[in-house]
Design a protein that fits this description.
Number of domains: 1
Low-confidence stretches: none
Radius of gyration: 15 Å
Order of helices and strands: HHEEHEEEEEE
Strand content: 35-45%
CATH topology: Nuclear Transport Factor 2, Chain: A
């Protein structure tokens, strides 16, 4: 593993930690000012710090209590250049404000740019798998 890959994995761990803590200020320090974020919820495309911040706050506010976010199948690709990407699966779970205890799989692709010795997320794309028979979001079996 290169030092860049290690730094990016650490950044992505900090992203999960900040998300689980619903710490919006800490979370936003990981994103560039010109972030472009594609989400599975309308309006689907969020640009810039303020729009992405509001979208994260919407996500946080949908949960009554903490969000559990488990990262699976993380792959990071970073060479000697100042660009890198990562893709992973997240199991996003917790109790929603409507009282429903939910777990759902989310696919995430992240592009990062390095400025000096610091990596920032410049693009993120989130999607949710669907059941092809019903065209509805696929939920993992409850354990």
């Amino acid at each position: 593993m290169t030092s860049h890959e290690s730094a990016i994995r650490t950044l992505l761990e900090h992203r999960v930690d900040a998300s689980q803590a619903k710490d919006i200020d800490r979370l936003m320090t990981l994103y560039s000012d010109d972030i472009v974020y594609y989400d599975a919820v309308p309006p689907l495309r969020f640009t810039g710090h303020e729009e992405v911040r509001r979208n994260f706050l919407r996500w946080f506010d949908a949960y009554d209590g903490p969000i559990t976010l488990e990262t699976h199948a993380l792959t990071v690709t970073a060479g000697d250049a100042d660009l890198a990407f990562a893709h992973m699966l997240h199991l996003d779970s917790g109790t929603r404000t409507n009282g429903m205890n939910i777990g759902l799989w989310v696919r995430s692709s992240v592009c990062l740019r390095r400025s000096g010795d610091r990596w920032l997320i410049t693009h993120e794309h989130i999607s949710m798998p669907i059941d092809p028979e019903t065209l509805r979001v696929w939920f993992p079996p409850q354990q």
